[in-house]
Write a structure and sequence with these properties.
alpha/beta; Alpha-Beta Plaits; TIM Barrel; eight-stranded parallel sheet; 11 helices; elongated
């Protein structure tokens, strides 16, 4: 249920309604907009006493949320959510580009990449310290040493960092270092992990699963938000289809549909979406054109020597050119870069 408060509702009023919702055995979720404050009552709606809530003087109206995903839906929040990460706003008019190597391999490799992507205009540094790999013999990441190197790169460049968390037991450790938790495609429906990051205040980048439907992606986001963390960013990174000319099929159709159904920011990952470096630039431009709020791009100082995903990684030079190429597309979409 959605409880819409009158314009002059106070913090005391919000607390009173929240307490009432808890007495019903439901969880209150407060969203303060510019004009109105709304409170979502999430749980077994059979326990909700609408008459008691409407009788409260600060309440304007009560509305049902028809979608199975409650907090994620536009019904719960009409205006776009903007996730603030150390001053970098994801979901606003300015497009956000997250860039960096697939895997943190060394201090030198990471710093070269970090300085290069910042110089070209990226505002968030990506890098994997814990790596989920198809083969158990492939490079699994530097783990905490990699996290420390990411923190050093942040200190030197000022770029916030996003890195993947693979297990609920690692949330505490990674949370000490990262500015954004990344939930990878293979963990999109790892519900225990979703709940754990949902209990933190750290923003979460949720990647679409390899074969996940739109509904499954939104319900996974609902798991995070239902635990209290509303700082969620959705990411389209390609899905598996019968096509074999690219690593995955980058489903850009989902971007405008997501923007219609949810208030959460949406970014596109053309690196994983194509698996080929020469396709990253055109698909990044397409991602901007279809309405995404930003991009995630893999950049490596020397892709041929990368321990993972070298085929889809851009060189610093190619990334700088990409950022230049994106500017007219951003302008045409009414955005800035």
């Amino acid at each position: 249920m959605i409880i819409v408060l009158k314009p002059k509702a106070s913090d005391k009023d919000i607390k009173a309604i929240s307490d009432k919702i808890r007495k019903f055995g439901m969880a209150p979720h407060v969203s303060k907009g510019e004009q109105r404050t709304i409170i979502g009552a999430v749980g077994d709606e059979r326990l909700f006493n609408q008459d008691q809530v409407l009788a409260m003087p600060c309440v304007e109206k009560v509305l049902p949320i028809l979608k199975p995903y409650k907090l994620v839906s536009r019904e719960f929040k009409k205006e776009d959510t903007i996730v603030n990460v150390r001053g970098v706003k994801i979901g606003g008019n300015k497009l956000v580009v997250m860039a960096g190597p697939c895997s943190v391999e060394s201090k030198q490799q990471l710093l070269i990449a970090a300085k290069a992507v910042k110089a070209a205009g990226a505002t968030i540094l990506r890098g994997g310290a814990f790596k989920p790999r198809t083969s158990p013999y492939a490079f699994q990441g530097l783990e905490e040493e990699g996290l420390k190197l990411l923190a050093e790169a942040r200190e030197e460049t000022g770029l916030p960092i996003v890195t993947e968390v693979m297990s609920s037991v690692d949330v505490g450790l990674i949370g000490k270092y990262t500015d954004i938790f990344q939930i990878g495609a293979r963990n999109m429906q790892n519900f225990k992990l979703l709940k754990m990051v949902g209990r933190t205040k750290t923003p979460v980048l949720l990647k679409r699963g390899l074969s996940a439907t739109l509904m499954e992606l939104l319900m996974s986001a609902e798991y995070i938000m239902s635990e209290g963390n509303h700082n969620v960013i959705l990411c389209e990174r390609g899905i598996r289809t019968f096509c074999d000319h690219t690593r995955n099929t980058l489903d850009l159709n989902i971007v405008p549909v997501l923007k219609k159904l949810t208030h959460l920011p949406v970014i596109v990952d053309p690196s994983h979406g194509t698996g080929k470096a020469d396709l990253v630039n055109p698909m990044a431009r397409a991602g901007i054109a279809c309405g995404s709020d930003g991009l995630m791009i893999e950049v490596h100082p020397n892709p041929v020597e990368a321990v993972s995903d070298g085929d889809q990684s851009l060189t610093p030079k190619d990334f700088a050119q990409l950022m230049k190429d994106l500017k007219p597309f951003a302008k045409a979409a009414g955005r800035t870069l």
